[in-house]
């Protein structure tokens, strides 16, 4: 048996012994009395009775040995700024932020919503919440008011931390108006909004509610806020993600299990050493940002690079310049970014000293072979695809190179990662699939440490959504199709649900449909994900108008299409904007009225729709075909 095969086998067969060993990677204020409690499946509790704190493990623990080492390297090509914080400086800033939040009454177990651009204060706010035992909920800065309102109402935050503006492609994107609109739409109003003023956009303050962080920080320059020791299963954060319904799910993460899982992943998967520098080019609004910009590198005693900007501004060499300047050892990004770079001058890959770089990690969407090949050859470094989800918080499939460098296969994210009892099952029968047989990727409980513990405030939804879809078996469904080859390598074949993956960003088609349907001219709409050479997928909408002649002329059609896009921009954010909006007079549905999104998708991608025996009216498919053909 290879060393990885036996490592993996032990993680499943001797689960508790395996994870008790990994748990030594972090500090415990009180040791746990039990590694795993799984007497109420599918709810797993890891490291029962142990008390710890994420901020202590990410920051304080390193102070005796690494106070002067870099902890956070912030680079903004949007505002042409760079700032570097040592562990001592990071600690001071986190304490100032924690004291400021505490002065607004934030306590253990309370929620703080963070709606921020990629600036150091966002990371300070996350760690400050962890320090206080408060639960952060970061909302991606590219989201807009309706998304915000839904999350505010579900998380019911005591305080929201935000900023005047972000910047994208050199263009200022004001946040405050969207936030004010979001709060106005929400029922659960926060007591306070704490604002970082970057001086990018004017901000109106709401008297009595809005406070300036600069003022509070100045009052707490010397603050030392003790870490609140949490029982391992107490929540660290809630991160919302999309699924089949219009209502996003709050993925709830524990504290101890998450710390252990991340610390272990840094050793076994990311091959990181203390003192290394990780550059995860993602956003703190997504799970990769939570795990691999903020927590994991700091837990491992590394420096983390936080980047505000695009991969190609000021030019396509910017990421590699950062690697050279800060001696980055691990880069982590999504395949879309590499496809963007692929369109640039290939000389950028050889112009810089990349000798510090050991590994490039890619995740978030399928890694196509040409992209994998181009970047592997261009960099001359191993490229490691890894597959996971917001729900799991760390990789499910990958190559654990820290355990053994088994060869990878193009197009495959690898094999089940230790701790995950991965199955491929037949969606109709629930039976295990054999090699080369397509099935739903599922995980036998208990989920390993670090994975979601429940849906925030809704245990029943956690069970129903994730654990009751495989017939006859209590299995966690990933909602991804997959296949395993004869050598045990997995390949991911797309989602089983209506989730759209645009440039590694996960969007729900229902949410976009609801937004478009709020346009007064729209009676009905279907949104689907269509293959795109650059972004993996883009959203495309098919709308039925209340008055069919509202888009009779090409000019009217164009104007209405622009209008619909604007509504999505304002409500959900540009990231959710459909690439095209087509107008039809009916949508393909089953006789029972269910939208046939998959048939629409097939037409858009030039595939056969297959046998649609339940189709209500074939003319609807013809309309979709004509619309797409007509452009
Ligand atoms: P998110 O929760 O936003 O991270 O999105 C998770 C989804 O992205 C997964 O369920 C997959 O559909 C897709 N995904 C993530 N990583 C990969 C990968 N390496 N290969 C293929 N699909 C991936």
TrEMBL record:
GO terms for molecular function: ATP binding; propionate-CoA ligase activity. Residues 4-58 form the Acetyl-coenzyme A synthetase N-terminal domain. The keyword Ribonucleoprotein does not apply. The keyword Lipid metabolism does not apply. Residues 70-446 form the AMP-dependent synthetase/ligase domain. GO terms for biological process: propionate catabolic process, 2-methylcitrate cycle. Transmembrane segments: none annotated. Keywords: ATP-binding, Ligase, Nucleotide-binding. InterPro entries: ACAS_N (IPR032387), AMP-bd_C (IPR025110), AMP-bd_C_sf (IPR045851), AMP-binding_CS (IPR020845), AMP-dep_synth/lig_dom (IPR000873), ANL_N_sf (IPR042099), Propion_PrpE (IPR012694). Belongs to the ATP-dependent AMP-binding enzyme family. NCBIfam families: PRK00174.1, PRK10524.1, propion_prpE. PANTHER family: ACYL-COA SYNTHETASE (PTHR43347), ACYL-COA SYNTHETASE SHORT-CHAIN FAMILY MEMBER 3, MITOCHONDRIAL (PTHR43347:SF3). This is Propionate--CoA ligase. The lineage of its organism: Bacteria, Pseudomonadati, Pseudomonadota, Betaproteobacteria, Burkholderiales.
